[in-house]
Specification:
Blueprint lengths: L10 H9 L3 E2 L12 H15 L8 E9 L2 E7 L4 H18 L11 E4 L7 E4 L9 E2 L6 E6 L2 E8 L4 E6 L7
Parallel strand pairs: 1-2
Antiparallel strand pairs: 2-3, 4-5, 4-6, 7-8, 8-9
Helix pairs in contact: 1-2, 2-3
Length: 175
């Protein structure tokens, strides 16, 4: 006699249930692979921490959570103060950059890879899940150049510490 198969826990529903107090509307669909469950759990926890500093409880609208070009895209509408908004934007930046080095299938460390051809698909895959994505696109740690009210910075993500380091960029370099 075989044992009944127990379905895997629905990580998206678990995240929603944990954070339902600040999410406006129904449970959002997160169009990402299961390997990014931890990336999104960290994002939602950081947003909850940021909202704890608001003087009155607020609800955020989740506009979109998806994978695009092999990276996480997350967009929220938030009626919050500027300090809370900055904390939410930082949480989103950390999640996006973590997604750039996390296999979208299993959650282990991965790198951005591409299928072959002109219209190649991009995905972040570990060495075990790279089948179908033979071309390596990203080699070093995730980084990007951002400009905000403080200036232009090169932002580099450290996966082990789950932090970013900002290095100011000379204005002449950013042109």
């Amino acid at each position: 006699m075989s044992r009944p198969v127990t379905p895997a826990p629905d990580w998206q529903a678990q995240i929603y249930q944990k954070h339902a107090s600040w999410i406006a509307g129904t449970m959002p669909q997160m169009a990402v692979g299961d390997g990014w469950a931890d990336v999104l759990a960290r994002l939602f926890d950081r947003i909850a921490d940021a909202l704890a500093d608001e003087p009155v409880p607020v609800k955020l609208a989740i506009v979109d959570i998806k994978e695009k070009f092999g990276e996480l895209r997350a967009e929220f509408l938030s009626p919050v103060g500027s300090a809370t908004q900055a904390a939410i934007e930082h949480a989103i930046l950390l999640a996006e950059m973590r997604s750039e080095c996390t296999c979208d299938e299993c959650g282990r460390e991965g790198r951005l890879r591409s299928t072959l051809g002109q219209s190649g698909w991009l995905a972040v895959k570990c060495d075990d899940h790279r089948s179908g994505y033979p071309r390596l696109v990203a080699k070093g740690p995730p980084s990007r150049r951002i400009t905000d009210r403080r200036g232009t910075f090169e932002v580099v993500y450290d996966r082990a510490a789950d932090t970013v380091t900002e290095v100011p960029v000379d204005d002449e370099d950013s042109r």
